[in-house]
Design a protein that fits this description.
This protein is α/β, with parallel strands linked by helices. Helices cover 37% and strands 17% of the residues. Keywords: Acyltransferase, Transferase.
Length: 215
């Protein structure tokens, strides 16, 4: 098994994230009690801004190992992100090392964070990749949908790459659900069906989160 990052390293990342996110913004966290207290879990996070990952990492009740595009691992960020238990992934190939490490996180009962849209976009879960279904079915892990709302607001920004400082960012955790159909099948058809089920659940969670927060 390829080296798997430890929960302790991700806990360091969580503590750094707590300080940064609560120092720069005003996170409002809803539904954190829904996250299973132990065992493998996948956070499926909508992605409309660069701050979404650090925000979830900081406010989640458990340390999280995010799959992050390798392009983010530049200069001093490379050893830093690796040191806090984050996973580098090449989105343009079948990155077997990243897959092995991500499955290792789940095998050890950890939390894997995924942006199922694959890249930053509208943050509405409209286009999902099959990777999330693969990890959920293969790793036997429930998915917890996570909606980050308010991170992409543009008015009042002092720094282009960040939401307005001290602005409210809502993070809403949903109910955990199983992506598979209970058969344990990992065929292409089974994963396609799982992806459909996931998309419905994530879209419904996002709609509920918007209603709840008024965002």
């Amino acid at each position: 098994m390829t080296d798997v990052p430890s929960a302790r390293s991700a806990e360091v990342g969580r503590r750094i994230g707590v300080g940064l996110m609560y120092g720069l913004f005003k996170p409002r966290v809803l539904g954190a009690w829904r996250v299973p207290a132990a065992g493998p879990v996948i956070f499926a996070v909508n992605h409309s801004h660069n701050v979404d990952g650090p925000m979830v990492m900081g406010v989640a009740p458990r340390p999280t190992h995010f799959l992050i595009k390798k392009e983010a691992f530049v200069g001093p960020l490379d050893p830093f992100l690796t040191g806090i238990g984050q996973l580098k992934v090449d989105r343009h190939s079948t990155d077997r090392t990243a897959i092995s490490r991500a499955l290792g996180v789940l095998e050890q009962g950890g939390v894997l964070g995924i942006f199922p849209e694959g890249t930053r976009g509208e943050g509405d879960f409209a286009a999902l990749r099959a990777g999330l279904a693969y990890f959920a079915v293969r790793g036997g892990a429930p998915i917890v949908p996570v909606a980050v709302l308010g991170s992409s607001e543009r008015s009042g920004r002092l720094i282009k790459a960040l939401p307005p400082l001290r602005s409210r960012v809502d993070v809403v955790f949903g109910d955990p659900f199983d992506a598979g159909d209970g058969s344990g099948r990992r065929t292409r058809k089974a994963l396609d069906e799982a992806t459909e089920r996931i998309q419905k659940q994530l879209t419904a969670h996002l709609e509920n989160a918007r209603r709840l927060t008024g965002r």
